[in-house]
Write a structure and sequence with these properties.
The chain has 161 residues and is α+β, with helices and mostly antiparallel strands. The protein contains four helices and five strands; from the N terminus they run αβββααββα. A five-stranded antiparallel β-sheet has the order 1-2-3-5-4, sandwiched between helices. It starts with 16 loop residues before the first helix and ends in an 8-residue tail after the last helix. 20% of the residues are buried.
């Protein structure tokens, strides 16, 4: 069953249960009924506003995510201007469409990505239950680095497919 393409939102404050349900159904969770959501800002991206959406379902239990992470263009005008100048939205959309489809290495599952050079809606698997977020400013120690190095070596270039 085909479900309509979700609408592209401008800012995180536009997220509602109908939009989340539309995204999940479009991603293949066809019978899902979203009863409620909670939206929590996370991170401090240079060219995005990022939120974690907790999801409660109605009716029967579904094998659907308990939460997703969603990125939008930033609400701060200066950060948005930087995103426009740098082409960040266009590149990130392309990366999830191209690299995500190849499954060359483990990245969060992309439930939906849309936008253009002026905006981005990126809905990703929430990995907070199975991973520890990094801190770019603090870096990492040997214990954190070694698993990352092994995983990055497992990534395969496009030419090998």
């Amino acid at each position: 069953m085909n479900h309509p393409t979700p609408r592209v939102l401008d800012v995180a404050t536009e997220i509602d249960t109908a939009w989340v349900q539309s995204v999940l159904r479009h991603a293949g969770h066809t019978g899902v009924e979203v009863a409620s959501i909670s939206v929590q800002p996370i991170g401090a991206g240079n060219v995005s506003d990022t939120v974690r959406i907790g999801i409660e379902y109605a009716g029967a239990e579904f094998v659907s995510p308990a939460a997703v992470v969603v990125k939008f263009r930033p609400s701060a005008p200066g950060a948005h201007a930087h995103g426009l100048r740098s082409g960040a939205y266009h590149r990130e959309i392309g990366a999830y469409r191209e690299v995500g489809g190849r499954q060359a290495c483990r990245i969060p599952r992309c439930f939906w990505v849309a936008g253009d050079e002026t905006n981005i809606n990126l809905v990703l698997e929430d990995l907070t239950a199975t991973t520890t977020p990094g801190n770019q400013a603090a870096g990492c120690g040997v214990a954190e680095r070694n698993p990352l190095s092994r995983n990055s070596l497992a990534c395969t270039p496009a030419s090998s497919h």
